[in-house]
UniProtKB/TrEMBL annotation:
Protein EC: 4.2.1.17
Name the UniProt record assigns to this protein: Enoyl-CoA hydratase
GO molecular function: enoyl-CoA hydratase activity
Keyword Lyase carried by entry: yes
Signal peptide: none
Keywords in alphabetical order: Lipid metabolism, Lyase
UniProt record similarity statement: Belongs to the enoyl-CoA hydratase/isomerase family.
High-level lineage: Bacteria, Bacillati, Actinomycetota, Actinomycetes, Propionibacteriales
Leading EC class: lyase
A Pfam family that the UniProt record links to this protein: ECH_1
Source superkingdom: Bacteria
Length: 276
């Protein structure tokens, strides 16, 4: 197996990052990471690499306050590209597995609010993409699952870890051991998704959620995300220490001053933030 060569990133005149299979679309402060590999958005190595590039762009752009991940009207992502992996040897996969995890880690590392808008199938690697965002809104026709066990393997892009942290170890083991698909309502009941909407509305609902952070306290939002995510990986005592450090650091920001002065003068929820 030869190493995958990442294509050159393309920037359209409006500054949007465009790959062959993944692009970042920005509108009114919300960035949409659009997965676009018909018909099923199978996540091959090229797509994984382009996701890493687009995540870096979304993280760096001041005109992106929050991010929606979307696979289109028919399907979110049906999983990794099995044809690409089927003939890999153990040594091949030891090398490729880093990319397989890096692309979902890059989604989780965007230090802004993120949400998946899930239509159709979100299976295997597609489910792992959704698990890497902060929230998940599902269409009423969505099917989610980690069916890797049916191929004689296990989730390899973070699924065993993120799913267990989200829904608890027993429910995660049920889904991963059986490989079964679940519908949107069961996913909502176990906490795998946060809201269910008609398929034609789910993307707009996700964008609506994301838009509330446009013009918001960007630094504080990033601090809150880091405190929560880092705290999940350490003891309660250490997590509280992370929170303490993030909390104190915000008193060096313009937004903290603006927020507190506005609260004292005008009451809550009326501050104008600069994002500094």
């Amino acid at each position: 197996m030869t190493a995958y060569a990442r294509p050159r990133r393309q920037h359209r005149p409006e500054g949007l990052l465009v790959g062959e299979l993944v692009r970042l679309e920005v509108s009114d402060g919300v960035g949409t990471i659009r997965l676009d590999r018909p018909k099923m958005n199978a996540l091959n190595a090229q797509m994984q690499s382009e996701i890493i590039d687009v995540c870096a762009e979304a993280e760096s752009r001041d005109d992106v306050a929050a991010v929606v991940v979307y696979g289109g009207e028919r399907v979110f992502a049906a999983g990794a590209d099995i044809k690409e992996m089927a003939d890999m040897s153990h040594e091949d996969m030891k090398k490729h597995a880093h990319l397989l995890q890096d692309f979902t880690k890059s989604l989780g590392a965007i230090n802004k609010p993120t949400i998946s808008a899930i239509t159709g199938f979100a299976l295997g690697g597609g489910c792992e993409v959704a698990l890497s965002t902060d929230l998940r809104f599902a269409a009423d026709n969505a099917k989610l699952g980690q069916p890797e066990i049916l191929l004689g393997i296990i989730p390899g892009a973070g699924g065993t870890q993120r799913l267990a942290r989200l829904v608890g170890p027993a429910k995660a083991k049920d889904l991963i051991f059986t490989g079964r698909f679940i519908d949107a309502q069961e996913a909502l009941a176990i906490g795998l998704v946060d809201q269910v909407h008609p398929a034609e509305e789910v993307y707009d609902k996700a964008v609506e959620w994301a838009k509330q952070f446009v013009g918001g306290p960007k630094v504080a939002l990033g601090a809150a995300k880091r405190a929560i995510d880092q705290g999940l990986d350490v003891s309660l005592e250490d997590g509280i220490a992370v929170e303490r450090d993030e909390f104190a650091a915000l008193f060096a920001t313009d937004d903290q001053k603006a927020g507190m002065i506005s609260f004292m003068e005008n009451g809550p929820g009326k501050a104008t933030f600069s994002g500094r």
